[in-house]
């Protein structure tokens, strides 16, 4: 039985934006503010550096009960004893990923088009990341697709029974509308990593989620 996930505030790390405070320190601040899951994403780092970063995050966050997900790199996730992996449509197929990581680790999948979303198998995939909702900083996500907007997200969210996080250019003011139309959470980069106080930023996002749910 895989872990029950708190996707409400999902931090995706960015090495450039986290550099000032530090990767682990930023993640810890975000978790203390209300982030319930952290993804290590660093497309420039080599395998050895990624494993070291992932192990450091696991050591800091596992005692707090917060899962660490590794973006794309299944080998890194397994080597670091991370809690799961997140893949995209051009990465290894979910069935193959699941065969490698086993039944217990978390598997997230990025999707954008209706057919991709509908094809995601709940027996294999634990959650979907749908986006981008808004325009994103090209330094954070080069060659990002055209934004879906809140209306585009709402239509796609209906295509899957899986838990779904909205991602892409999301700031605090966008959270309540997205949760209200069915998002299980919001995945953010600069809304936390790029802020002078990541804990306060995460708290603001978490409060925006709670404002709709309670």
Termini separation (Å)? 28 Å
Largest sheet: 8 strands, parallel, barrel
Number of helices: 10
Structural class: alpha/beta
Spatial sequence of strands, sheet with the most strands: 1-2-3-4-5-6-7-8
What global shape is seen? globular
* Amount of helix: 40-55%
Q: Mean of the pLDDT scores?
A: 94
Write down the secondary-structure element order: EHHEHEHEHEHEHEHEHH
The count of DSSP E runs of length 2 or more, i.e. the number of strands, is 8
Backbone CA Rg: 16 Å
Strand fraction equals 15-25%
Query: Would you identify the regions where 5 or more consecutive residues have pLDDT less than 50?
Result: none
What does this molecule look like?
By secondary structure, the chain is of the alpha/beta class. The protein is 41% helix and 16% strand. The chain has 10 helices and 8 strands. The chain has helices at residues 15-18, 23-33, 47-61, 74-79, 94-101, 114-119, 149-157, 172-180, 190-193, 198-213; strands at residues 9-12, 37-40, 68-71, 84-87, 106-111, 127-130, 164-167, 185-188. Helix 2 (23-33) runs parallel beside helix 3, helix 2 (23-33) runs parallel beside helix 10 (198-213) and helix 8 (172-180) runs parallel beside helix 10. The two termini are 28 Å apart. The model has no long low-confidence stretch (mean pLDDT 94).
